[in-house]
Amino acid sequence: DGGITQSPKYLFRKEGQNVTLSCEQNLNHDAMYWYRQDPGQGLRLIYYSQIVNDFQKGDIAEGYSVSREKKESFPLTVTSAQKNPTAFYLCASSTGALTGELFFGEGSRLTVL
Amino acid sequence: AQSVSQHNHHVILSEAASLELGCNYSYGGTVNLFWYVQYPGQHLQLLLKYFSGDPLVKGIKGFEAEFIKSKFSFNLRKPSVQWSDTAEYFCAVSNSGTYKYIFGTGTRLKVLA
């Protein structure tokens, strides 16, 4: 089945540690996205990538980093510089056509202890 | 900067009641508009989208939305809700010039049986 796989589903980390969230898609989509979902704040864009080896900051990129070395993969690193990292993280992809919709993974819940 | 406003944060309805959820956006150019739904424990999925043509768009599960350009609005409607419509609903906007998708803060709908 085609889709987006995020792992791990749940993750705990200690303060001061970096953690990397995985996102893989087999939809052959060009564009990939990372959002953060917090109660009452909706989805906020962290980073997005329109094509391999290229990515742009979203509205809340501070404390996060990404890479896009392969079309199907777009990992997100939550660094120790992110002041409030406990959240639900969603990865999405789209065909890259400007009228295309986003397809979402099931999300990763990160808790910082 | 682009933004999306959803004025109803929590809505409680009885089954068979009519539903209208508000969505307003701020962007002067050509936009694509989306409504997504997140059922409890499930990933976000597309309800409907508008990118051109008839401003009244029909989606899945009996939902529809009307794009009113002069009001910068894209309200979601359903004539008769069911208990299974209990979910969180998100409005989103992308513009034809970039690949950014901006989401509203979401509306939690609870339908009482």
- N-end to C-end Cα span of chain A: 35 Å
Number of helices of chain A: 0
Order of helices and strands of chain B: EEEEEEEEEEEE
| Shape estimate of chain B | globular
Q: What percentage of residues of chain A falls in helices of 4 or more residues?
A: under 10%
Q: What number is the mean pLDDT of chain B?
A: 93
Helix count, DSSP H or I runs of 4 or more residues of chain B: 0
Overall description:
The complex is a heterodimer of chains A (113) and B (113). Chain A is mainly beta and 113 residues long. Chain A has strands at residues 4-7, 10-13, 19-25, 31-38, 42-51, 54-57, 64-66, 76-78, 87-94, 103-104, 108-112. In chain A, strands 2, 4, 5, 6, 9, 10 and 11 form a seven-stranded mixed β-sheet that branches. Chain A is globular, with a radius of gyration of 13 Å. Chain B has 113 residues and is mostly beta strands. Chain B has strands spanning 3-5, 10-14, 19-21, 24-26, 31-38, 45-50, 56-58, 64-68, 73-78, 87-95, 101-103, 107-112. In chain B, a hairpin with a 4-residue loop joins β8 (64-68) and β9. The A-B interface holds A 31, 33, 35, 40-45, 48, 50, 58-59, 90, 92, 94, 96, 98-99, 101-102, 104-107 and B 6, 9, 32, 34, 36, 43-46, 49, 51-52, 90, 92, 94, 96, 99-106.
Give the gist of this structure.
By secondary structure, chain A is mainly β. Chain A has no helices and eleven strands.
